[in-house]
Design brief:
CATH superfamily of chain A: Hypothetical Protein Pfu-838710-001
CATH architecture of chain A: Beta Barrel
CATH topology of chain A: Hypothetical Protein Pfu-838710-001
Structural class of chain A: mainly beta
Order of helices and strands of chain A: EEEEEEHEEE
Distance between the termini of chain A: 20 Å
Low-confidence stretches of chain A: none
Largest interface: A-B, 21 and 21 residues
Radius of gyration of chain A: 15 Å
Helix content of chain A: under 10%
Oligomer: homodimer
Number of helices of chain A: 1
Chain lengths: 117, 117
């Protein structure tokens, strides 16, 4: 099990784009919530992922993520996801020894400024 | 993805025990419900399983089951499961070309008669 510590920021402008080293197309669907935890299915390009995120405790939460067949992830997104599918492109922006992930939303959240996590 | 069609029966007596060909110790915990669907984590002996069961439609429901590290299944059972852990021994009872699964409950459901599914 890993812990997730996620901090989100709103980027000020598009200056990060020139530094991006790559990107992934993500499609996320919520299967279920439990307290402040959730179960999410994701298509990351041609990879399927099923993720259980535990309740937040302070800044962090337990995260259990498993690769699953993409065809099954797509099927769960289509038939089981609760609410809209979140579609975004995640850009990787190396910075020193770390990598920023900059999400540009489409679909239901299009128009939201890019958010880096 | 598989479909689950589950029918449960209450057994009349212990006559099935002599015909059992094997058994597994199961520990099940509910992670989350969504409508009539659910996300379950299971320890089946030394195998961990994470299962998404879709809503029931008539007699059947979609079922997505993935093997996960047993240590993570045990951790989710301990830290994330909602409500009591269901502990049971599942006996396999071959009958013609089919196999009955006879569950004998312990723990919170101990005292319930064995149920075959």
């Amino acid at each position: 099990m890993a812990y997730e510590i996620e901090r989100k920021f709103l980027v000020a402008n598009d200056g990060w784009r020139a530094a991006a080293s790559g990107s992934s197309r993500l499609r996320d669907g919520l299967i279920a919530r439990f307290g402040s935890g959730k179960v999410r299915v994701r298509l990351d390009g041609d990879r399927g992922l099923l993720t259980v995120k535990g309740p937040r405790v302070g800044l962090r939460r337990a995260e259990y993520e498993y690769e699953i067949p993409a065809v099954e992830a797509e099927e769960m997104l289509r038939t089981l996801a609760d609410g809209p599918i979140v579609e975004k492109t995640r850009f990787r922006v190396p910075h020193g020894s770390l990598t920023w992930e900059v999400d540009v939303h489409e679909g239901i959240l299009a128009g939201l400024g890019p958010v880096s996590a």
